[in-house]
Design brief:
Elements lengths: L3 H10 L4 H9 L2 E5 L4 E3 L7 E7 L2 E6 L5 E7 L4 E2 L2 H6 L6 E4 L3 E7 H10 L1 H17 L1 H10 L2 H10 L1 H6 L2 H8 L3 H11 L2
Antiparallel strand pairs: 1-8, 2-7, 3-6, 3-8, 4-5, 4-7
């Protein structure tokens, strides 16, 4: 298992000692998921944290009509988990799905949380990661959902060309909270 990118990403948040790194690697394993395979199903307990080595992963919830509503997408070198479900120790409200064939490093939530208590540097990584990704990044996203139009959010998504090109049109429409027909109208409007 090649952990270099995984460790590099962790160390961008906070540098880990050799001892902490060894303890973390010990609880990690590699797994592959096929396109459309669930890493976590809504209503299940979140038992793992994941790091994406290759592939694309989506987070979605299902509305009353049975439509999948995508909340966020994760590309390579991202950490993925149903964080609030882990913190609350409750079943996840979200499903996590492989939108492409994926290769991930996974580590059990229970073992990782035990390591957080033993290793100060790992706890600092975790805090800095949560602050950056679940507070700093998430706040503008919530504001944009409330105040920006689907067209404004589409234009923002378009700026992330590498992610945009990997998504299917129904994923984009779902993420924007509109129908595929409305998405077609927005695209026509922009391309005039």
């Amino acid at each position: 298992m090649n952990n270099s990118e995984f460790l590099k990403q962790i160390n961008t948040y906070y540098p880990l000692s050799k001892q902490t790194t060894a303890a973390l690697i010990e609880i990690c394993s590699e797994e592959h998921f096929q396109k459309n395979e669930l890493l976590l199903e809504s209503g299940s307990m979140a038992r793992y944290y994941y790091f994406i080595k290759s592939g694309l992963i989506g987070y979605y919830t299902t509305d009353e009509e049975g439509n999948n509503i995508y909340k966020i997408f994760f590309e390579e070198n991202s950490f993925v988990a149903s964080t609030s479900a882990i913190i609350k120790n409750e079943p996840s409200d979200f499903s996590i799905i492989a939108l492409e064939d994926c290769s991930v490093i996974k580590y059990p939530t229970k073992a990782f949380r035990e390591l957080l208590e033993k290793h100060h540097d790992l706890a600092l990584f975790h805090i800095k990661y949560l602050e950056k990704n679940w507070v700093v990044k998430k706040e503008p996203l919530e504001v944009s959902l409330k105040f920006e139009t689907a067209k404004q959010r589409y234009l923002l998504l378009l700026k992330n060309k590498s992610l945009y090109d990997r998504l299917k049109q129904h994923h984009i429409a779902s993420y924007l909270g509109i129908t595929p027909t409305q998405l077609s109208r927005i695209k026509k409007e922009i391309n005039r």
